[in-house]
Amino acid sequence: MPALHQFLPALAPRDAIGAHTMKVREVLRAHGVESEIFAGEVHRDLRSEARSYKDWAGGTPMLYHAAIGCALGDWIAHRDEPLLLDYHNITPPEFFEAWNPETGLLLAQGRAQLARVAPRAHAGLADSHYNACELVQFGLSDTTVVPVFIDPSRWGAIDRECRDQLRRTKRGTDWLFVGRLAANKAQHDLVCAFALYRSVWDPGARLWLVGGTSAGPYQIALEGLIERLDLGDSVRLAGSVPPGELGAYFDAADVFVCLSDHEGFCVPVIESMWWGKPVVAYAATAVPETVGDAAVLLEHKDFAAVCAAVDRVAHDRALRDALVERGHGRVDLFAPERTADTLLRALGHAGVLG
Amino acid sequence: MPTDATEPGSAGATAGSEVPDARTLMAEIEADVRAKRRSGEIPEALERELEGAFAAVAPPGATGAGFDTVVDQAARHAIVDYDVPLVGKRPLRMLKRAVKTLTAWYLIFVGRQLVAFAGTTLRALRILGGRVDALERRSPATDTRVQLARAPAELDDVSGWAEFCITELKAARARVVHAECGNGALLDALVAAGIDAYGVDPRLDAARVSDAHRVEARTEEALEHFASVPDGDLGGIVLSGCVDTLVLGDKVELVEQAARSLAADGALIVIGRDPRAADSEADAIALDLAPGRPLHAATWAHLLARAGCGDVVTHAETGARGFAVVARRS
Predict the structure, then answer these.
(1) What backbone phi and psi angles, to 5 degrees, belong to A69?
(2) What does A81-137 look like in DSSP terms, one character per residue?
(3) ipTM greater than cut 0.90
(4) Separation of alpha carbons B173 and B196, rounded Å
(5) Do A46 and A18 contact (CB within 8 A), yes or no?
(6) Is B55 on the interface with A (CB under 8 A)?
(7) Which residue of B has its CA nearest to A335?
(8) Tens digit of pLDDT for each residue in B25-61?
(9) Are B312 and B326 in contact (CB under 8 A)?
(10) Which of A178, A191, B88, B255 could form a Cys-Cys staple with A268, CB 3.0–4.6 A?
(11) Closest chain A residue to B62 measured between Cα atoms?
(12) Cis previous bond, A36, omega within 30
């Protein structure tokens, strides 16, 4: 029986790379490939799913999910077994250096490790063409785009009480963005654009920023910005919320607005499309290829243009319907069955399935 | 898909109307913004305030602050705080106080070495920063005094090359960019000839050029623009203006980035001044104070070939004041 074991820095619940890794294992096993997960750190709730990489016996091909600097990255660099890289993108450290220097150092370490590991890898997988290009720059030219596994069956839960409360208090257009609070996600630009929108277009508008934080000082600065712009309760930092509450935000929002400066894929825009919400996004890094023609893409981050685009999408029913319909097409494009086929083809091409 | 997804609020909805393509939609959105700015509906002061609002609440160095600010930030982090906070309930607080007292001599000993190391490193950084400042003051490309002394540039008019450019670019299979597009006259001619072209120039009021010529113009450095263009994305490129004034290293970078951005068979046209004629130009002040000097046509031909372009041909302007070098991405 062929074997392909997976390695990742950390396996944690509600983590996109962790969920992707477990789905890859499921696909491999369904196709008769022996596959286990080995991680640098394993969350206590997932100890039945993975073991420490130090327990691995060696001797079979490895699939390494590169995400951040860790001891596992150095260990991988010194192994002799056939190696495949799955690159989920490592945020450039400069986005974190001023906010969370430790994370900045880990990201820099991750990129340095990737530069050592990539040239010796057999083949690469990447979530997007943007990531694939980066992997090629790191020295791995044989790279195939295999999107991150998205599992819509996990979406759809709605905390009705939360949704009804959001609807009852509606006074205008409701903006939503989902993603951890971090400088590369540029929630500060969202807040500034939103302040202009409330001032010029719609004084009853609200902005919901859903997601935990990866840099406390960034959240503090964001709170300072909200206060400075006198936005009060119109901006809600909801934090990390359970699936039902997240569903309530998606269901109640009018427009999903993404002004991220750096994304390796951006799953929340696909989730928003699944919920039938139109997307306005800044065309940075992998965002344009993820949204395709199913979003209003802004080439420049001009706050006034962001507002005008949001307002157009919120009030032009024909445009909104067209975006929503195209969005459903994008969701189908990233369906898990399709991704599984792409993955198996890529692994077959790499010659690791025997 | 969710079965109970709700319809968002939709006052003024236009169900049944035609949905514009992405480019038309963006043009409409930008026109809407321009109209609101012109009418004063979008207050200029608010836009200015928003541009700087985040920098006012962000820590030093977080929003692209300079070297000195970041070194100052590092200096603040370089001081070890020995005074460990004693929080918690009474027995725990007392235990912490005892540990603090007992280990103070050790922490202070180690901490002083860390502070000494950080202080020395910071001093080395400041010396290095001083040397870089001195070097920058000696370079026309980076000396802020030279930049301030520069006369306000007249926006170039290279529309004399319109017919030539239209011939070379009419078969372009993707968008064409003119960087720097100057007063927009050549861009206007390209668009009038049915070529899907847009312009880039850091000196212009993009909105004014767009309004005057009904073309798409962006206020952006040419080099900065090409850095954001994907490989092979452009059907044709016209370079002018900056090709005469950038420092040599930036000129080489510009050609390489432009060639990379060009689709196969796309034309790259450099419209430059002949350096032998440049001395007698009317705008001598602008040329003298520019960081770089015009290059000969043969040099551009060499740089284009070096960047991977083929079929390089030079065309001299009547009176030999300028030239156009055209090459194609092989």
Answers:
(1) -65, 140
(2) S-EEEEE-----GGGTTTT-HHHHHHHHHHHHHHHHHGGG-SEEEESSHHHHHHHHH
(3) no
(4) 9
(5) yes
(6) no
(7) B1
(8) 998 998 999 899 889 999 989 999 998 899 888 876 7
(9) yes
(10) A178
(11) A98
(12) no
Q: Spell out which residues of chain A touch residue B30, defining contact as CB-CB under 8 Å.
A: 305, 308
User: Which residues, given as ranges, of chain B have pLDDT below 70?
Assistant: 1-17, 60, 64-65, 147-155, 204-214, 278-283, 318-320
Q: What is the 3-state secondary structure (H, E, C) of B289-319?
A: CCCCCCCCHHHHHHHHHHCCEEEEEEEECCC
Of residues B115, B129, B125, the one with CA closest to residue B76: B115
Structure tokens that stand for A108 in this block: 């820099």
Tell me the one-letter amino acid at B296. Answer: H
pLDDT (tens place) for every residue of chain A, 354 residues total? 889 999 999 998 878 899 999 999 999 999 999 999 999 999 999 999 999 999 999 899 999 999 888 899 999 999 999 999 999 999 999 898 888 888 888 899 999 999 999 998 999 999 999 999 999 989 898 999 999 999 888 888 999 999 999 999 999 999 999 999 999 999 999 999 999 999 999 999 999 999 998 778 899 999 999 999 999 999 999 999 999 999 999 999 999 999 999 999 999 999 999 999 999 999 999 999 999 999 999 988 999 999 999 999 999 999 999 999 999 999 999 999 999 999 999 999 888 776
Q: How far apart are the C-alpha atoms of A67 and A89, rounded to whole Å?
A: 6
Tokens 């150095």 correspond to A74
Residue A170 forms contact with B (CB below 8 Å): yes
Beta bridge partners of A143: A124
Q: Which of A105, A160, A192 best probes binding to B when mutated, by most B CB atoms within 10 angstroms?
A: A192
Residue A300 touches chain B, beta carbons under 8 Å: yes
* A316 near B CB under 8 A: yes
Q: What number of helices (H) and strands (E) belong to chain A?
A: 13, 13
List residues bridging with A83 in a β-sheet: A62
What are the φ and ψ backbone dihedral angles of B215, each rounded to 5 degrees? -125, 170
Identify which of B322, B262, B319, B278 has the alpha carbon closest to the alpha carbon of residue B297.
B322
Give the closest-approach CA distance of A197 to chain B in angstroms.
10
User: B6: which chain A residues are within 8 Å (Cβ-Cβ)?
Assistant: 167, 251-252
Say yes or no: B26 contacts chain A, CB-CB below 8 A.
yes
**Coil, strand or helix at B204:** coil
The alpha-carbon radius of gyration of chain A (Å, integer) is 21
